[in-house]
């Protein structure tokens, strides 16, 4: 067997393990064991520990998968013409992304304070979300307390609260966000 073949098999196993972990988190398994992840991925427990020295490695792989899925949605141009319409479009985009991220980011946030990787990625994602919001807003709203209020309203943490603690449907959560944003900018 060639080194390239072993590398391809290892890469495929890493991806299967990360996808298995993503699936388990989506199904509500907040902290799946290595045995459960291995079983779901169809690999041995030893393979999980051979390919990933720690949970950060699994989260890095999951992050890469999620980024490849979500980046195209955020990178595409806005269809809307006015800033208010673009803000509404941003609500739609974030709702879709946040729904995909909800169980995964919740699990990552539980580990964030013990993981340099997760802390760094959280800061990066938060910064990118803020920059996307600023790009949509007119200059007079993209600064000071107004920016801070809008950034908070459009945050993942707000979405998680609406969906988990307040148990709102996706449509209800979007309606609440639109009402908050409307109250802030009108």
From TrEMBL:
Query: Which GO molecular function annotation, any one, does this entry have?
Result: DNA binding
Q: Which UniProt keywords apply?
A: DNA-binding
Q: Known InterPro entries for this protein?
A: Homeodomain-like_sf (IPR009057), HTH_TetR (IPR001647)
Species source reads: Candidatus Viadribacter manganicus
HTH tetR-type domain span: 11-70
This chain's protein is named: HTH tetR-type domain-containing protein
DNA-binding span(s): 33-52
Top-rank taxon, per record: Bacteria
